[in-house]
Amino acid sequence: MEHTFIMIKPDGVQRGLVGEIIGRFEKKGFTLKGLKLITVDRAFAEKHYADLSAKPFFSGLVDYIVSGPVVAMVWVGKGVVTTGRNIIGATNPLESAAGTIRGDYAIDIGRNVIHGSDSVESAKKEIALWFPEGVVEWQSSLHSWIYE
Ligand code: GTP
Ligand code: MG
């Protein structure tokens, strides 16, 4: 089954949105297979966002990600990469649809509460980076109520 990496950014943790965000993924029917609260250093944040290293906002982005603890998660389910991004909403919260996490809880692009992998390939890289110890393999007893 498809995996994705989801991170609640420092602003989401500070603002008390952890439960709300996890609830949205749970209620959709996705399965949580990894979860930890972690503060990362600059080298780690730079590795996570390496593809954006040439962008003018890169150092501000790294400052943001290292500014406090984040909640790192692995969620699993059919279509979870794309659907996870839809639940999160557009990068710029002023353009995110109402009902999405960023649309409901954020205003500035540099304080947009949550990260989600943008492809199955990125998800694999990000899960390997954030969960080198591996994830928890289990199947929800609700599986047959969610999948036909
Ligand atoms: P992530 O899920 O965090 O990867 O966001 P994304 O995939 O929607 O956007 P992208 O990967 O292009 O950018 C990563 C993060 O950099 C965004 O979530 C923003 O926090 C930040 N960012 C992107 N574009 C801008 C920008 O133009 N200005 C600023 N200040 N930050 C930006
Ligand atoms: Mg991205």
What does the model show?
It is a single chain. The chain is α+β, with helices and mostly antiparallel strands. Helix content is 41%, strand content 16%. The protein has eight helices and four strands; from the N terminus they run βααβααβααβαα. It is globular. The protein binds guanosine-5'-triphosphate and magnesium ion. Guanosine-5'-triphosphate (GTP) binds at residues 52, 57, 60-61, 91, 109-110, 112, 115-116, 118. Residues 52, 57, 60-61, 91, 109-110, 112, 115-116, 118 line the site of guanosine-5'-triphosphate (GTP).
Characterize the quaternary organization of these chains: single chain
Low-confidence stretches: none
SS strand fraction: 15-25%
The backbone outline, from C-alpha atoms, is globular
- Count of extended strands: 4
Strand arrangement in the largest pleated sheet: 2-3-1-4
- What letter string, H or E per element, gives the SSE order? EHHEHHEHHEHH
Distinct small molecules bound, one entry per kind: guanosine-5'-triphosphate, magnesium ion
Question: Which secondary-structure class do the elements indicate?
Answer: alpha+beta
User: End-to-end distance, in Å?
Assistant: 14 Å
Q: Evaluate the radius of gyration.
A: 15 Å
What's the overall average pLDDT, rounded? 98
Count of helical stretches:
8
The helix content is: 40-55%
Q: Let me know the largest β-sheet.
A: 4 strands, antiparallel
